Here is the input.
Amino acid sequence: MFGLEPEEIALILKQKEIVIENIKEGIIALDNNGRITLFNKEASRILGLEKGHIGSPITDFTYESIADSVLKSGEQKKNIEIKVRPGLNIMCKYNPIKGFKNESLGLVITFEDLTEVRKMAEELTGIKKMAWSLRAQNHEFMNKLHTISGLVQLEEYDEAVKFINVIASSKKNITTIISDKIRDVSLAALILAKYSKCEEARINLLVDENCKITKLPEYMTSEELVSVVGNLIENSIDAVKNDGQGEIYVKIYEEEQKLKIIVKDNGCGIPEDIRESIYNIGITSKSSGHGFGMYIVKKIIDEAKGSINFKVNNGTEWNISIPMERS
Here is the structure.
């Protein structure tokens, strides 16, 4: 009883109860068998726990769990990302509970909802991307107007008409492919923004007319798909030359219950010394990069039970396959 009087024990118990309930992190306590013995309001909100779930295994509420391994090892684990369900990931800290004789009494898990944090980040990033895309389109539009104006002043009317027709045809093709074939609005917006960026940088972005995506894989969100495609295209933009010779090819389509993604370029390729470690944090071929892009891409694809591989031959070609439904 730690030498405490009943009134003191009751006070401490009430104080701790209030603190636990008002913490903005989820808290769950488990016994030695991995069954829930206690949880706070935030844990209830994030995981949908109710009073009747006391005594249920933690594995009933998450796709992934390392609670059993932590209970066996008795070691604290920090910053462990766990997938709860499609669209919900949490960042966990595991703290084993030890008795006076260092015996295991259970485990306390504290966690926060990564999905909400990422959505806020995506919204901010999305606003920046939209603003950049509008600036790029305005710059591109002004350049074309100046070209048309110059042709008119030189009285090269046939050339001006030809130039206008080429621009109109090019825009119509990419818009038709994106609007008719790619049903995910976020992905369509991303590709259109990258197309504008490539045009301004004098890079040819070719979107295959046979692209087709009518729905997302069962265990992949729109934000995750945008992150995968966006990272790959951005890497290709950095790898190719911006002298009119750089070329990037993109194809996203559904085939035999799988979503296939192909992104290839005619750039400098991935340096041989980092090919085996390209998915590790901190590995990058860019002079100003941080080395998170391909780590994030690989993690998203692994969580969706997909596969990713690449080959280097006069550039880099990425091939990704993600099951539409998980067996």
In short: The mean pLDDT is 83. The first helix runs from residue 6 to 22.
